[in-house]
Design a protein that fits this description.
- The structure is a homodimer of 84-residue chains.
- With 84 residues, chain A is of the alpha+beta class.
- Chain A has one domain: 2-Layer Sandwich (Mth169, Chain: A), CATH 3.30.1280.
- Helix content of chain A is 33%, strand content 38%.
- Chain A is built from two helices and three strands.
- Chain A is elongated.
- The termini of chain A are close together.
- Chains A and B meet through strand 1, helix 1, strand 2 and helix 2 of A and strand 1, helix 1, strand 2 and helix 2 of B.
């Protein structure tokens, strides 16, 4: 069994209205030092697979096909072997 | 300037309908080895602050007050000093 820790983030050039809203909220709360906020996703996938190489390839395909939108998002992940 | 890399995740006992939906989607795409999926948030905050200790305290307060819902979510973060 593998645990994939996946980060999906907006590409740096893409506007992040959610991040702007959070930044505004933090300013309203008095956190005036906040310079910028970017909001992304953090996804944990537990995968029944014994072969680390196959697990890596599968997670990459999951990101490409469903978890990330390749037009506006980047993804990266780490794999960790866990007890099933 | 500090960059805070914040992870906000649902507490382990809390239901994650979004994660269940993603899991269903992955199964439909043929990734039958997927055992479970949990979806959280990954937030990057750039903070104008020179003192690392103060930066840490501020980010913790941001999480408590706005970024995480302490009833159902956990948060953790790392701080990294960056060039302003």
């Amino acid at each position: 069994m593998y645990l994939a820790k996946i980060h999906v983030t907006l590409k740096p050039t893409v506007n992040d209205p959610q991040g702007l809203t959070v930044k505004g909220g933090l300013h309203t709360l008095g956190f005036n030092g906040v310079h910028s906020v970017r909001v992304g996703k953090y996804i944990e996938v537990r995968l029944d697979e014994k072969d680390g190489k196959k697990a890596k390839e599968q997670v990459r395909e999951m990101c490409r096909q469903l978890l990330a939108n390749p037009v506006i998002e980047d993804f990266r992940f780490e794999l960790e072997q866990i007890k099933g």
